[in-house]
Specification:
single chain; mainly beta; Glucose Permease (Domain IIA); seven-stranded antiparallel β-sheet; three-stranded antiparallel β-sheet; 14 strands
């Protein structure tokens, strides 16, 4: 995991190892046009998904493709796993948390079978969204080999 965002003493972590991409580059207009709010995306290189923040789980979608989180200060986050994965009706997802569970960036919240998603013709891109937020953010990622900044629109 690596820190990717700092704003007013708040740090948001990547939910998975992989390549950060601006939301505008996600291959689904619902996300790329910000219809679900601002955020960022990760092209994962691992099947393990972690909480990007310290908070509680407020929802786990029945189709297992999305998890809602809320921080102590009331900020909402939506972790959306894959594109058009709602159609899989939960297949390929192992959700490890339940509503009201406390989570930290060290909490593994899900395991996704990326090979299965690929076999089904689904993208495994993970979106971290800030529903209802209208701010723009600067993301700073740090990995073992490089640091990059991405301006969200």
């Amino acid at each position: 995991m690596f820190s990717i965002f700092k704003k007013q003493e708040e740090t948001i972590f990547s939910p998975a190892k992989g390549q950060l991409i601006p939301l505008s580059e996600v291959k689904d207009p619902v996300f790329s046009q910000g219809m679900m709010g601002p955020g960022f995306a990760v092209e994962p290189t691992s099947d393990n998904i972690y909480s990007p923040v310290t908070g509680i789980v407020v929802s786990v979608f029945p189709t297992k493709h999305a998890i809602g989180l809320e921080t102590e200060d009331g900020k909402e986050f939506l972790i959306h796993i894959g594109i058009d994965t709602v159609e899989l009706e939960g297949k390929g997802f192992d959700i490890l948390v339940s509503e009201l569970d406390k989570v930290t960036p060290k909490t593994k919240i899900a395991v996704v079978d990326r090979a299965f998603l690929n076999e089904q013709g689904k993208e495994s891109t993970i979106m971290v969204l800030f529903p209802g937020d209208t701010d723009t953010y600067s993301i700073q990622s740090k990995s073992v080999t490089e640091a990059e900044a991405i301006k969200l629109k």
